[in-house]
Amino acid sequence: MTAAPTPFLSRNPADPADILTEVAPVGADAVAAAVERARAAQPGWLGGGAAARSAALSAIAAAVEAAAAELADLAVREVGKPLAEARAEVARTAAVWRYYAQAPYEPTGAVHESAAGPGLLLTRRRPHGVAGLITPWNFPFAIPSWKAAPALAAGNTVVLKPAPEATACARRLAEIIGQALPEGAFTLVTGGPEEGEALLATADALSFTGSTTVGTAVVRTATARGIPVQAEMGGLNAAIVLPDADIARAAGHIASAIAGYAGQKCTATSRVIAVGAALGPLREALAEELRTLAVGDPADPATVCGPLIGERARDRFAAALEGLPPLAAGTAPDGPGWYAAPAVVEKLPEGHHLLREEVFGPVAVLLPADDLADAVRITNSVPYGLVTSVHTAGLDAVLHGLDRLDTGMVRVNAPSAGVDFHLPFGGTKASGHGPREQGRAALEFYTSSRTYTLTPAHTM
After folding, report:
1. Which residues are catalytic?
2. How far apart are CA 173 and CA 141, in angstroms?
3. pTM higher than the cut 0.85
4. pLDDT digits (tens, 9 = 90+) for 216-263
């Protein structure tokens, strides 16, 4: 007899004795059955028309807003997100659903003149069927929403497999979504790799956010199946500071992007590149920012850096910094939570793992650059290419140098960590594969283009 899979306990990272839920893996057969139910429901969901889909997504946005305080507190408790960030994420989640509620009314194609004689040529975008979503724990409401909302708006049905660490958040979100949708249009399945593989094997399109290692395997399998795939993966993001920048302001932005939510974002800053004379003043300003940055209980509205997601994450972070005296560091609180002190290090040997690998914790490396061209070279030297922030008082560098950055996003005088949900989001190289997420680009991923040729049966 095959042993039942071991349940996963979703714990509060600030107080591991506080268990939110026991996650029972549903198994591959249950995932396949959920996909079949979603496939059966999809024609009715699409056939209900644009008005029904728009109204449903608007209702979800309103329900998220009505439950905002509850959802924010749940994110604080289950994934250790600082309260201010949790509130912002919930507000963004509602905005995402409201944004895509207008999408069903958007044009889905175009009409063209026939090249030869009477008739019409039409293009039209149509949904794939069942969209499978595999999502991480760090944005437990926003990421499932910015995947599910455009998929549903375009007429797909959805099966979501969240990270086990965010199961309580996913269940509550699924309750809110399910109240506005017909049976089978949105289904939550819980579990780990087995359930993710089963969803990948059965869905009609697959959107993934997670590690580069897993994402690469997802892309390989989906490509072999011939289904559309979108994989948003890691980052090793740089902040470039030019000598003319407002150093104090730049240091504040960078410190928040290093340590906000304990650096557990793919858009966190991992490398700080100081150009020329910016190095000395930036070193001092960044050290001061980290020394005074609020590290502690995520339920405290003042906290910027809360705990890491789990004990293994904390141990990996400690191992990554072993033997490296920090240039500057915050202070991790004593207590039961999985806390780590944010840090900046410098003068690492070429090829050091912190210069090549994403740590997913509150640490960055300070690097000197001779000029902007050298800073661009350093930025582009890693396998990742998600986002770069650039800090400068002038536009010359922006206009003449930054197109050489091999990253999917460039943010000027702003932290690397940040999302404009109505614009395309994604990276190059090992940071991403497939069409971009968010904005109108998401609608393109969840649909395929059809070309129709209409000619008259009789000539006039």
Report:
1. 232, 266
2. 7
3. yes
4. 999 999 999 999 999 999 999 999 999 999 999 999 999 999 999 999
